[in-house]
Amino acid sequence: MTLRVMEKGDLASFVERLIASEPGAVGPVRKDGKHVFARLASVEDLDLAYTTTLLPPKKYLFPPQETLLRFRLGAPPVVEPVLEAPPLVVIGVHPCDLRGIWATDRAFGDDHVDTNYRARREAITLIGADCLPDEHCFCTSVGSHLPEPASFDLFVTDIGDAVTVEIGSERGRALLERYARSREATAADLAGLQKRRHAKEAAVKARLNVDVQMLPLLLESVSTSPLWEQLGAKCLSCGNCNLVCPTCYCFDVGDLMQLNLEEGERIRRWDGCTLVDFATVAGGHNFRREAKSRVRHRYYRKFQYLMTRYGRSFCTGCGRCSRSCLAHINPPETINALLAEAEREEA
Amino acid sequence: MSTPLTRQIESLYLGRPATVTAVRTLTDKEKLFDVELADGPLGHEPGQFVEVSVFGYGEAPISVASSPTAPGGFQLCVRNVGRVTGALHRLEPGAMIAIRGPFGRGFPVDRMRNRDILFVAGGLGLAPLRSLIGYVMDRRSEFGHVTILVGARTPGELLFNDEYAGWARSPDTEVHVTVDRAAEGWTGHVGVITTLFPRIQVDPKTTTAVIVGPPVMYRFALAETFAKGVPEDQVYVSLERRMKCGVGKCGHCQINGIYVCQKGPVFAYAEIAGLEEAL
Ligand SMILES: Cc1cc2nc3c(=O)[nH]c(=O)nc-3n(C[C@H](O)[C@H](O)[C@H](O)COP(=O)(O)OP(=O)(O)OC[C@H]3O[C@@H](n4cnc5c(N)ncnc54)[C@H](O)[C@@H]3O)c2cc1C
Ligand code: SF4
Ligand code: SF4
Ligand code: FES
Q1: Mutate which of B9, B10, B12, B124 to test chain A, going by most A C-beta atoms within 10 A?
Q2: Which residue of B has its CA nearest to A284?
Q3: Could you give the percent of chain A with pLDDT greater than 90?
Q4: 8-state DSSP, B27
Q5: Both ends of chain A: CA-CA distance in Å?
Q6: Region class of B246: left (phi > 0), else alpha (psi between -120 and 50), else beta
Q7: pLDDT average, residue stretch B80-97
């Protein structure tokens, strides 16, 4: 790892120069008392002192609605694939959201590479930033609290009177050299970084009472737990948890015609496995008719199905679903209840 | 011929241009489409499916209903149930569509060679099964005794009924047909498909069973098949799920942790027996 240090004022002018010189820059912006990733017009828009954003930066890699093809009807129809990949610098991405991007990189990059995701991904520069956990964050339980060098181009941490900058890629190094004044890190800076990390870890309160790597095995034994009935009875099937999750990537596809009825687009849109008709086929048969089977499916994707396939938890511990669920369903309570049940049964 | 669909950019979601060369009405709800790709053969295995695009309406997964041993293009047997399938039904010969695929895992024909085969087809299940039946008929000497059970709700809903006699004329092949409810002029068997089982002989040591039908059929047809002694790893099914991509991305087709579009639609029963969401 290469570690550099910037004075705080230099970080501001770095961001200012990025905004002025790069084709597009986005970052956490305050909106109605919350934070959202949005376009930065100037460095004043950027608010790095944030806990979480409503939506994760996934929306820049996999937009809520995206055109896959554009076509003109006729004999023959003319069809053009669409790959939109606007260059973008995303500033202020927290470690859990970097892990979320690791997850979507795996899912979209596996076997059949998703060309649309890949194009956007390659056009994006990620500048991570360290965070301030709230009562819902449980990143330390899933091991997503530390920034992994391969997951960012640059990563900044506020160590009090200065900021450290980790360099994760050549692209990051080039940006830093071009636009920023920085110096080499001293032993004191390193100590400051460690101290900051320990303080953050200590501030994370919510936790899973189990080694996350044990979860695929645990879930093997609790698929018929009465807890799923209870959660199913509470769940409103609103899809909020899917909507806000950095690692939910299911989608629907359909055609949209323009008013002239000659030109149209094939569109994909975010979909959610907790919505009633996610698994309904023509003819009306619903393969996950009950809310309990949909909630369970979502948890099994995060902690077993995809975890077994890709080796790490597909939940980043960001706490967004905990914050947005009107029925107060959340991963720490769910997992801990399942764990307690499994332990009771063993005893 | 000019290529109607452009292909300069590589895209996972762009199909290959294809022409509907013939349309035949099979029943009130099903039509059979002959399709030819502009850029070469489909190269499918029996039991695989394709994603069919009708631009302006969308895309739908449809099983290939013809055997790869058949000459020319390939066939799709489509039931009109909604947007895309309805649009397909309105197409005339010469219409241009697009095809992605073939996708998924088909029937393991190499494992079936030299074995007796029991086909159980309920309703539209005969569409994917016909690709395998055609394959077996075209290479008849490579397989043992063949028993084909076909069921539909009414005589008017029987698919491909002009082909049953031809299959039955193949050496060592029997075909049994039933309908749930008879209609005027029907002289054949009446009863759900499981009522055909007492009529057939099955050697559990040499038989592979292949069962495809609507969700409600599986439990009963499987029970009858196991009652004949056929082991779980010699029973194959093809499962339908909602599918939006066919390439393991959209998440719609999952049975527990398994992506049907990748690992299926064909499964050995032994592979899915433990999965709560399978049947
Ligand atoms: C592997 C595989 C192979 C298949 N093979 C064949 C085949 O060979 N032949 C064949 O005919 N079909 C086949 N199917 C089924 C076929 O894919 C569907 O019938 C088709 O996708 C329906 O699309 P549509 O646009 O026509 O219908 P849609 O317009 O999508 O819907 C059809 C019906 O379902 C209802 N519906 C749709 N969406 C919902 C929802 N969200 N909630 C509740 N109801 C809903 C609608 O009300 C409508 O009545 C196969 C499916 C799979 C997965
Ligand atoms: S946010 Fe809560 S209520 Fe809504 S679908 Fe998810 S679990 Fe159910
Ligand atoms: S499941 Fe909830 S806590 Fe886990 S990554 Fe998704 S939104 Fe965040
Ligand atoms: S159809 Fe999209 S994942 Fe299988």
Answers
A1: B12
A2: B81
A3: 93
A4: S
A5: 47
A6: left
A7: 96
Contacts with A49 (C-beta within 8 Å, 6 or more apart), sequence order: A132
pLDDT of B2 higher than 50:
no
Backbone phi and psi for residue A229, each to the nearest 5 degrees, phi listed first: -60, -50
Q: What is the mean pLDDT of residues B132-142?
A: 97
Record the pTM.
Answer: 0.93
Which residues, numbered 107 to 146 in chain B, qualify as contacts with chain A under a Cβ-Cβ cut-off of 8 Å?
Answer: none
Where do runs of H (alpha helix) occur along B139-181?
164-169
Burial of residue B3 (number of CB atoms within 10 Å: 0-12, 13-18, 19+): exposed
The torsion angle over the Cα atoms of residues A318, A323, A326 and A327, rounded to 10 degrees, is 60
**Contact residues, chain A, for B255 at CB < 8 Å:** 287
Q: How far is CA B173 from CA A155, A164, B4, in A?
A: 70, 77, 44
* Residue labelled with tokens 């501030």: A203
What domains lie within chain B, and their CATH numbers? 4-102 (2.40.30.10), 109-272 (3.40.50.80)
Residue A111's pLDDT is 86
The answer to whether the Cβ–Cβ distance between B57 and A255 falls below 8 Å is yes
DSSP for residue A301: I
Cα–chain center distance at A163 = 24
In B, minimum Cα distance to A70 occurs at: B55
Structure tokens belonging to residue A275? 């919505």
Angle between helices A226-234 and A331-346 (to 10 degrees): 160
- The first and second tokens of residue B192, run together, are 């759900």
The β-bridge relationship of strands A263-270 and B74-79 is: unpaired
The pLDDT assigned to A100 comes to 98
Residue A166: C-alpha distances to residues A153, A156, A218, B229, B233 (Å): 8, 6, 37, 65, 54
Q: What is the ipTM of this complex?
A: 0.91
- For A262, the token pair is 């000659």
The candidate with the shortest Cα–Cα distance to B116, out of B66, B163, B174, is: B174
For residue A111, which amino acid is it?
A: D
Burial string for A39-71 (b: 16+ CB within 10 Å, else e) reads ebeebebbebebbbbebbbbebbbeeebbbbeb
The pLDDT of residue B278 is 85
Cα angle, residue A333 at apex, residues A332 and A339 outer, rounded to 5°? 90
Which of B235, B10, B21, B16 minimizes the C-alpha distance to B111?
A: B235
Q: Which two tokens stand for residue B35?
A: 């399709």
Interface of B with A in 67-86 (CB under 8 A): 81-82, 85
